[in-house]
Amino acid sequence: MRIGVPKEIKNHEYRVGLTPESVAELVHDNQQLWVETNAGAGIGASDAEYEAAGAIIKATAQEIFDGCDMIVKVKEPQPVECEMLRPGQILYTYLHLAPDPVQTQALLKSGAVCIAYETVTDDAGDLPLLKPMSQVAGRLAIQTGATALQKDSGGRGVLLGGVPGVAPAKVLVIGGGDVGFNAAQMAVGLGADVTILDRSADVMERLSYHFGNRAKVIRSTPAVLKDLVKTADMVVGAVLIPGAAAPKLITREMLSTMMDGSVLVDVAIDQGGCFETSKPTTHADPIYIVDGVVHYCVANMPGAVARTSTYALNAATLCHAKQIARHGWKQALTNNPHLLNGLNVCHGKLTYAAVGHAQGLKSVDAASCL
Hints:
Blueprint: E1 2-5, H1 20-28, E2 32-36, H2 47-52, E3 56-58, H3 61-67, E4 70-72, H4 79-84, E5 90-93, H5 101-110, E6 113-116, H6 131-148, E7 170-174, H7 178-189, E8 193-198, H8 201-211, E9 215-219, H9 222-228, E10 234-237, H10 252-255, E11 263-266, E12 287-290, E13 293-296, H11 306-335, H12 337-340, E14 343-346, E15 349-350, H13 353-359
Helix pairs in contact: 6-7
């Protein structure tokens, strides 16, 4: 199979679909790799390194899309990339379709076979291809939130860990999954006063056991959330419903009760965001203020630490890329029901029910496409 790796073109996206090491593994499997020139520049990987790994360097994305059977990316295809997709071509990347009807329609029109990292599952029912970026984003949420709390960023001018004689910042983490756990871990490490909200008894038990008295773990209810946001210096939105639009947990009305200069970091923005006032931002212009509250809603947070993120992502995604390349998409998805769960769009049909529910579209069972 001929596999193509175009350069990412989303605003300030520096990651790349495959590292030179991953290319070498695929070449060893007798696959042919085409890589767009400078695709790896953001992680410090030169064209020469890709060539040494066995890749053929191409000058344009158009050549990659025109000549390859499978396209491996990081972020969702931008409109110009959607136009380059063709019927039957495999697209393997993050999609986050639920809040993005424009992209959904473009992929349906393309006729491509679109496999989304974020809905591939494993035996435990987890999302192994989403997990590494959730870990990165959770940790980054605290770094970026701490900066946003600074007065020069529009924040309250509060140091996350405080100093002797001055109380630390109060950090509220909504959701105790991979994002929330990693955010809480970073915030606790910096000395913040951390509270984690979740609704799962198992998750709450696990978090309580891990953090002990270093963080408070509380069952999430609307009343509890409404009360805690009033005194929070930073709120991290870390909720996830796999493949579906995120629930709006903090309303505009609740925002009016928060302190001026407090910070909201919406890590769920890829799935539409979990705050009513959230809207996607970019690394070039990451924050905005509503009712005195600083919002950080960058949709590709891990792109800021591109090298770490790319290598972490490839460690999770490469095994499935190999399966698809060796067996073709139909056989690979037949062999692996967890990979089948990643199929979101196929030959003009929507194959992920949660996306259909979010957008009012008809979907079909993914297995019917095999």
